Amino acid sequence: MATDDRTWKPSRRNLLLNGAAGLVSLYCDLETATPSRVSTSAARRAQADSPFEPFRADLPIPPVLRPSRRTATTDQYVVTMRTAQVEILPGYSTPVLSYNGMLPGPTIHARAGRRVEVLQRNTLGVETNVHLHGARAPASSDGHPRDGIPAGTRRVYTYPNRQAPATLWYHDHTHHATAEMVYRGLAAFYLLRDGREDELGLPQGRYDIPLMIADKSFNADGSLRYARDLNNGFLGDTVLVNGAVQPRLRVERRRYRLRFLNASNGRDYSLELSDGSPLTQVASDGGLLPRPSRVRRIMLSSAERAEVVIDFSLYRPGTELVLRNGLGTAGTSSVMRFDVVRGGSEDFRPLPRALREFKRLERPVATRQVVLDRQIIPRVEWQLNGLGFDMDRIDTRPRLGSTEVWRFVNRSTHTHPMHLHGFFFRVLARGAKRPGASERGWKDTVRVDPGETVTIMPYFDGYPGAYVYHCHKLEHGDQNMMAQMEVTA
Ligand code: C2O
Ligand code: CU
Ligand code: CU
Known about the structure:
The protein is mainly beta. It has 5 helices and 30 strands.
């Protein structure tokens, strides 16, 4: 069995947790980046001799953050970005970068139409930046790379929540350093709900569960191992859900709403149930789908969300149902397990046939092409339309309130999850085909496979200003697969 602790050389960037100096190296060491070599980890080794077998830990649910103040219109929150030690592997303490000392960070619950203000205090000793992914927020609160939070300072973000209910998440967005910061723990849920959705009879309360999926690797001492892989994005050897290694969840014989988020840096998942039964998907990035749809598997690339309803009353008590990752191997081939237990509260209401109305969109006023590719010479960099990100350059100027057609043309041999800040889009076509059922709602991130062209229709309904769009393989985005649009009235 390989023990690549021996082959793994600590680099300056691994010193991140010991001091600010570690991060500085991230900004300029593209050519010297070590290839990722992440096959052995404390988790994997431990699995071999048992205490950390999969399905040993109970699924943790990140705590809901309490507002520090509530006014007639606004809920105010305070979050502190700080280093912390958390227990991911039983008996080990893992240093992380955190929101409020936990991994994932605390969940924010928001109601549509009610404003949220988050005061983010940066005590990490390095510059950070916070982005609420999936938010229709004013540009000044969007976490634009120019709006970093210098070490030792704070910033208030305002989220109007004038948008449909959906599963959002907040995560770090530090310029050129997002990948490592998110990997080391700066990610959390933000769940937006509204009264209309509440009335649909979807499972609520403790039967409505957010699941943050992210792969990691560990050093022998239990610390997180990170090596930047500019090709694939970081690929870990161990899947965590809500910060626990391949956990299990005891489920009653009733329906649950499960909100999957792929918070991995680079890994794609194909989620499927071990008994082969279909999943009933009810929502994607931008909230509810037009109607529930039964799908065999759910493809999820970085930052994508999919919500499903699973009816565990169809299973006998004692059933162990594994949520598999069809794209994984070994420690990444299963995600978690549902253990069906006796009993269960009654829930007889059938799922509604229609979940949400989709209004017809205006005719698109522009068609744009975005070529996804890599430059090798003079240095390796991922690019959009032949250019790496430049904060001082505006790449696209959509008009506020309009719709456009964008074609993502992937000329590379890697998958790129393409993400727009500030606005949602519909997926019109994947190649020449209509998108699958999972992609028929509003999206903010879409997977573009090697050689593929994906056509989307963004709707620039939101706030004016400069927003970025980028590849959400975080190492790609950091190393320059990002561009900027200025949306003007
Ligand atoms: Cu979740 Cu700019 O990204
Ligand atoms: Cu985003
Ligand atoms: Cu990419």
